[in-house]
Amino acid sequence: MLPLFIDAILVDYNIGQFLLLGFVLTTLGALPLKSQQVIGINTMLFGVIFVLTPASLLPNVYLFLGLTLLVIGPMVYVTARG
């Protein structure tokens, strides 16, 4: 029964929307740590995931989001006080 429920959810959304939800949730989960380095690493990781996901699975908008995250992530990491 659970696979049918998950399959019904996946029909309405694409993988890019699930990855974006994962990025938002992990960023919100890292906020209580108050570590800018963790946020930077998280941003870079999801940038890589968005860029490496095959284009047939998600729209091109998410590729540009991944490239943007790959530019912003290192800036956030470098500007952190360590």
Question: How far is the N terminus from the C terminus?
Answer: 48 Å
Helix content: over 70%
Tally of individual helices: 4
N-to-C SSE string, H for helix and E for strand = HHHH
Q: What key attributes describe this structure?
A:
77% helix, mainly alpha, 82 residues, 4 helices, flat
What does this structure look like?
With 82 residues, the chain is mainly alpha-helical. It has one domain. Helix content is 77%, strand content 0%. It is built from 4 helices and no strands. The protein has helices spanning 2-12, 15-30, 36-52, 60-78. The radius of gyration is 15 Å and the shape is flat. It starts with a helix and ends with a helix. Keywords: Membrane, Transmembrane, Transmembrane helix. Residues 2-81 form the DUF8006 domain. The chain crosses the membrane at residues 13-31, 38-55, 61-80. It comes from Halonotius aquaticus. This is DUF8006 domain-containing protein.
Can you lay out the helices and strands and say which pair or pack?
Layout: H1 2-12, H2 15-30, H3 36-52, H4 60-78
Helix pairs in contact: 2-3, 3-4
Transmembrane segments: 13-31, 38-55, 61-80
Keywords: Membrane, Transmembrane, Transmembrane helix
Domain DUF8006: 2-81
Short description, anyone?
The chain has helices at residues 2-12, 15-30, 36-52, 60-78. By secondary structure, the chain is mostly helical. The mean pLDDT is 92.
